[in-house]
Design brief:
5 strands
């Protein structure tokens, strides 16, 4: 099996995922996965598609992640891994879709409006 590549996005983060057969090694930006995502919650989020399908030890994953914060990056990696697993075996799509891993989360940061300190916050109103 040759390398399968897929793209995952979340907020401002973009993850390019390269999936190949192997022993379950995950590398992110040239570093070990557990070193890059030090928080166990983020590690769990990123590996959810592998754990649902019970194929965590079957594939090696190399990912390049750019932009956003650590939470957005881990969720972008999750989407990229899920898309790559579907390319590897199309029968996985039904299971991953039922768990919600195939849907790109469309929520983005709302822009700041002029005359306001933030997107929705207003400056204090003074009647006099």
């Amino acid at each position: 099996m040759e390398s399968i590549n897929a793209l995952g996005r979340r907020k401002a983060a973009v993850a390019r995922v390269y999936l190949s057969e192997g022993k379950g090694n995950i590398t992110v930006n040239g570093r070990d996965f557990k070193e890059y995502f030090s928080d166990e919650t983020l590690q769990y989020v990123a590996t959810q598609p592998l754990n649902v399908l019970n194929v965590a030890g079957n594939y090696d994953i190399n990912a390049n992640i750019d932009g956003g914060g650590v939470r957005g990056q881990s969720e972008a990696l999750r989407l990229g891994i899920a898309r790559a697993l579907v390319i590897a075996d199309p029968e996985n799509k039904k299971v991953l879709k039922s768990h919600g891993f195939m849907t790109r989360d469309p929520r983005e940061v709302e822009r700041k409006k002029p005359g306001q300190p933030k997107a929705r916050k207003r400056f204090q109103f003074s009647k006099r």
